[in-house]
Amino acid sequence: MAGYKIVLSDQQRMFLEGVKTFLENYSTMQFSVSATFTSGKDLIEYLNKVDVNIVITEINFPGYDPEELIKDIKIAGKNTKLVILSAYGDINLVKSCFRMGVDGYLLKTSDLDSLIECINTVVQGKIYIGENLKVAPELNNNIAENDLKKKRIPVDRFLVRQSMTRRELEILELICKGHSNKKIAEELFISEHTASVHRKHILKKIGTVNSQELIEFVKEFEILK
């Protein structure tokens, strides 16, 4: 990753400086923060003049619609990876951003190691979705079982799949076959405890409370197809 240039953009100057300092002091990463901006307009003007590898930006700027900002960034930096680091985690906004070509999205409440993981992921040409973003709707435990599907909001199976690691997808497939943690551990040559931890992480990401709900969700929205 030697020579990667990063540009940061956010209304809050103090937040910008904090992220910049962290990135520049992260010894295992080989890149430079070439510029910081507190204005979406200034960011676009810079990208029209200078080639950068990664833009990490908030999408809430006065007088600048988030979709317009993304569009202008993609036009100005055709080969630039775009990461949204935002205070806003509305699922509809997140979906819209990915459909417009965003490479990564994480919330400002994420830990700094997640930002490094995001950078590593997008420079490899992969999509990154922060773990604390909900890619599936909350399930309302107060409604009747027969009404459950009627109350769900359609989800984007692409985002659900992209939120999981390859190992989690393997385990999800085995869970849907009805395998216990012990059986999963035997098939994947991992410990039963590790299988249990993965199962819990998957349940949390999907937003289901038990394996049966998880299996129903996966079948309903064809997550594994």
Radius of gyration: 20 Å
| Class from secondary-structure proportions | alpha/beta
CATH third-level topology of the largest domain: Rossmann fold
Q: Major beta sheet, specifics? A: 6 strands, parallel
Name of the CATH superfamily of the largest domain? Response regulator
The CATH C-level name of the largest domain is Alpha Beta
Provide the number of structural domains: 2
Arithmetic mean pLDDT? 83
Order of strands across the main sheet: 2-1-3-4-5-6
Instruction: Write down the secondary-structure element order.
Output: EHEHEHEHEHEHHHHHH
Strand content: 5-15%
Number of strands: 6
Report, as a whole number of angstroms, the end-to-end distance. Answer: 34 Å
Unreliable spans = 137-154
Categorize the overall geometry.
elongated
Helix content: 40-55%
Please give the CATH architecture of the largest domain: 3-Layer(aba) Sandwich
Number of helical runs?
11
What does this structure look like?
With 225 residues, this protein is α/β, with parallel strands linked by helices. It folds into 2 domains: 4-129, Rossmann fold (3-Layer(aba) Sandwich), CATH 3.40.50.2300; 145-220, Orthogonal Bundle (Arc Repressor Mutant, subunit A), CATH 1.10.10.10. The protein contains 11 helices and 6 strands. It has helices at 13-25, 40-47, 66-76, 91-99, 112-122, 148-151, 157-162, 166-176, 181-188, 192-206, 211-220, and strands at residues 4-9, 31-37, 54-57, 81-86, 104-107, 128-129. The protein has a 6-stranded parallel β-sheet, sandwiched between helices. α8 crosses α10 and α9 (181-188) packs across α10 (192-206). The longest helix has 15 residues, at 192-206. It is elongated, with a radius of gyration of 20 Å.
